[in-house]
Amino acid sequence: MARTNTSIDFDDFIGQISRVFPFLSSIYLTMQQTSSDRVKEKAIELGFHLVGIASVEPDDESVRHLRNWLQQGYHADMDWMSNPKREDVRACLADAKSVISVALNYYTSHPQPTEIDRAKISRYAWGRDYHRVLHKKLKTLAQWLEERGEGVRVRYYADTGPVQDKVWAQRAGIGWIAKNGNLITRNYGSWVFLGEILTNLELEVDRPHTQHCGSCTRCLEACPTQAIVRPFVVDANRCIAYHTIENRAETLPSDIENHLQGWVAGCDICQEVCPWNQRFAKETDVSEFQPYPENRDVKLSELAKLSESDWDRQFRASALRRIKPWMWRRNAAANLKHSD
Ligand code: SF4
Ligand code: SF4
């Protein structure tokens, strides 16, 4: 059974009485396990593909890794990455005890366009805005948790708060943070969206996932801009995904421009070459993630003159709205400049 604040007294009571009747503590433990299982069952029932649970305390290694990465300036100008709350999620929910981590497979079997005049858009953005899809499911799960008892508190996030989603997914046993910085799952590869629910319920936790990149270095070798500076460390300053989506400068750096290879929104190269993705990617059953045709078949020359009204129409309910019309024109023009 999940424990709330009011059940602390109950815990003490069980602790004392189980010294006299030891079998009671095992019954209570079984009740707790059932509750964690129930949370997972509910998450799967709501359509999440993977779910795991971690305890809320920060782990030193992840904090050290984050600090080193920030110190090197590898976050470029993404200042939200240095929000101190990312080191300890209890800053988001003071009495949080558990983090429920969920994953949603978004892979569809369509290939990227290969024609020289076509723009490449990262798979995660082909269909409906993932924030909307995840939030709807997370909200339902969060409400269900709140109904478990008085005093149950929850906060949920889907790439929308100061939460290190991959760290929590690894700690909750969903997958591992790979050499290319993505989270790889055994069931779906790295084509997954992640979400989290923080709660003051004290749930039984899962074992952290082990790392399975082994001696493979395919992603490091394939990255056209050497953005994976060493295994597990990606420098955003060199990454096409950062430059096409987040960089607000009028022009892109020349050593990025000449390696774009058709990418105008994100970059999937280090995921496409990954043997785990090649072997374990599965077609998603989430219909909202099926691509809008215009996101898979758009000419660079059209994007280079994208108007505000075309942008508004084309990217409605899309995560691609983060890329403003002038950025689409900039990214497309940069590709065209180097396409001869
Ligand atoms: S997203 Fe592209 S540019 Fe960034 S690390 Fe991966 S392969 Fe390199
Ligand atoms: S390509 Fe190899 S090293 Fe890179 S993430 Fe995949 S398994 Fe790990």
Short description:
Helices cover 37% and strands 12% of the residues. The chain is built from 14 helices and 10 strands.
Structure report:
With 340 residues, the chain is α+β, with helices and mostly antiparallel strands. It folds into two domains: 36-112 and 123-199, no CATH class; 218-337, no CATH class. Helices cover 37% and strands 12% of the residues. The protein contains 14 helices and ten strands. The strands form four sheets. Strands 1-2-7-4 form a four-stranded antiparallel sheet, with helices on both faces. Helix 1 packs antiparallel against helix 2. The radius of gyration is 22 Å and the shape is globular. The structure holds iron/sulfur cluster (2 copies). Residues 178-180, 213, 216-219, 273-276 line the site of one iron/sulfur cluster.
Order of helices and strands: HHEHEEHEHEEEHEEHHEHHHHHH
Characterize the main sheet.
Answer: 4 strands, antiparallel
What binds here, in terms of ligands, is: iron/sulfur cluster
Strand content: 5-15%
> How many distinct folded domains?
2
